[in-house]
Design brief:
Number of helices: 6
Shape: elongated
Number of strands: 14
Strand order of the largest sheet: 3-4-5-2-1-6
Structural class: alpha+beta
Number of domains: 2
Radius of gyration: 24 Å
Largest sheet: 6 strands, antiparallel
Order of helices and strands: EEEEEHHEHHEEEEEEEEHH
Strand content: 25-35%
C-alpha cells in the first residue's frame, strides 16, 4: 500500500501523487521521469524508484474513472469521483496491469533516453525490439487508453544496427578525423544536453564532444567533433543533422569603469558566435569554421538539432551519471525483468 495525496491544481487539473513523485506539470521534468499518456491524463514514475504506484495528473476526470480504481483502488476512485482532496491509501485493484503500465512507460523512456555510448561502453538497444515490446504492453494495458487510437512512441530517428567499437579500443581525438596543419592554440572536451537532440544520433558519453582551434597563416580555425551514437544510421535526414554553436567566453570579466561600464569591449557581442553544420564521417560528427579568436577568450560549444528540445541549457550531469549507472545495472542483472531489447544488448555485448 502507498499513501497518495489527492489535490486540485490549476487550471482544472486533479493530481494524485505519492510524496516526491515527478509530475508532468513540473517546471522542468527530469531526465529520469517515466511518462505515460492515458485516457483523461498522464501517469508518471521515477526511473530510480521501484514502486509501481504512479503519480497522475488528470485533465478529464470522467474519462479517467474507467481506470483510476484499477491503479489506485476503490478508496481513491471514490475520492476522485467526489472531488474530495486528502491523503489516501492506494491499493491497486489490478496490480499486474499497474506493473505492465510502469514497464510500458519505461520502454517508452528507454526509446528516448537510453544512454547508448561507445565512449562509456553502454550498447544501444535495438529499436525494433523496443517497438515490438511497446506494442505488446500497449495491448495488455488497453483499458488505460480509452477508445482513441494509442500508437507506440515514435523515435525521432529510426536507427539501423551498425557495428560497435568498445570504448577501450576507441580513441576520442580532439578535432575528429580532420587533419589540420598549424599551431594548436586551444582544445577541450565535454558533454551535450541530451534534450537537444533526438536519440540515435550522438554518443551519450560525458566526454563525447571535443574541439580544437588551430592557427595557420594568420587564420584561426575551430574544429568540432562529436562521437556518433553506437546505433547511428548512415543516412540521416538533413533536418535531423546536428549543429555546433561555438561562442567565445571571456576567461575573466574586465574591470568596470566609474559609469558601471567595463572597459574595452564591455557588453559587446561575443567575438565568436558561429553555427557549424556537422557531417557524419566514420564514427564521428565533425565540422569546422574560421573564427576571430581573441587571446583573452575561451570557447563554449553547444551541440543541438534545430527546433529540438528547450533552448535554455539545463545542467543535469549528476542525473546523467546516475542514468548511466542504472543502465549498466540493467544490462548486468537479469533478475530485474529486463526488456527484450536490454537482454539482447547484454548478450551481444558479452559475445563481442
Amino acid at each position: 500500500m502507498t499513501v497518495v495525496h489527492l489535490r486540485h491544481a490549476d487550471p482544472g487539473l486533479l493530481v494524485i501523487a505519492p510524496d516526491g513523485a515527478p509530475l508532468v506539470t513540473d517546471a522542468a521534468p527530469g531526465l529520469d521521469a517515466l511518462v505515460l499518456e492515458v485516457a483523461g491524463g498522464h501517469l508518471t514514475w521515477s526511473l530510480f524508484d521501484s514502486g509501481v504506484v504512479p503519480a497522475a495528473v488528470l485533465d478529464d476526470v470522467d474519462a479517467a474513472q474507467d481506470w483510476v480504481w484499477a491503479v489506485y483502488g476503490e478508496e481513491v476512485a471514490v475520492a476522485v469521483a467526489d472531488y474530495d482532496p486528502r491523503a489516501l491509501t492506494a491499493s491497486p485493484a489490478q496490480p499486474e496491469t499497474v506493473a505492465n503500465m510502469r514497464r510500458l512507460a519505461y520502454a517508452h523512456w528507454a526509446s528516448r533516453w537510453w544512454p547508448a555510448s561507445t565512449v562509456d561502453g553502454i550498447p544501444a538497444l535495438d529499436p525494433r525490439l523496443l517497438l515490438e515490446e511497446i506494442e505488446v504492453l500497449t495491448e495488455q494495458c488497453e483499458m488505460m487508453f480509452g477508445s482513441d487510437d494509442f500508437g507506440p512512441l515514435e523515435r525521432g530517428l529510426e536507427s539501423e544496427s551498425v557495428s560497435r567499437v568498445r570504448a577501450v579500443d576507441y580513441a576520442l581525438a580532439a578535432g575528429g578525423t580532420d587533419a589540420a596543419d598549424g599551431l594548436i592554440v586551444a582544445r577541450g572536451s565535454g558533454h551535450w544536453d541530451w534534450r537537444r537532440c533526438p536519440p540515435g544520433l550522438l554518443d551519450a558519453g560525458e566526454n563525447a564532444v571535443s574541439w580544437q582551434v588551430t592557427r595557420a597563416g594568420g587564420v584561426s580555425t575551430v574544429r568540432v567533433s562529436v562521437v556518433a551514437a553506437p546505433d547511428c544510421r548512415r543516412a540521416v535526414p538533413e533536418h535531423l543533422r546536428p549543429l555546433a554553436r561555438v561562442r567565445s567566453v571571456r576567461a575573466q570579466p574586465p574591470a568596470a569603469t566609474e559609469q558601471g561600464q567595463s572597459a574595452g569591449h564591455d557588453r559587446a557581442e561575443p567575438s565568436v558566435d558561429v553555427q557549424i553544420p556537422l557531417h557524419l564521417r566514420g564514427d564521428a560528427w565533425t565540422g569546422a569554421a574560421e573564427i576571430a579568436l581573441r587571446t583573452e577568450t575561451s570557447l563554449d560549444i553547444t551541440v543541438f538539432v534545430p527546433g529540438f528540445g528547450p533552448a535554455d541549457p539545463v545542467e543535469e550531469a549528476v542525473v546523467r551519471d546516475r542514468i548511466r549507472r542504472f543502465a549498466r545495472l540493467r544490462l548486468s542483472d537479469p533478475t530485474g525483468r529486463p526488456l527484450t531489447a536490454e537482454s539482447t544488448a547484454a548478450e551481444a555485448d558479452e559475445d563481442f
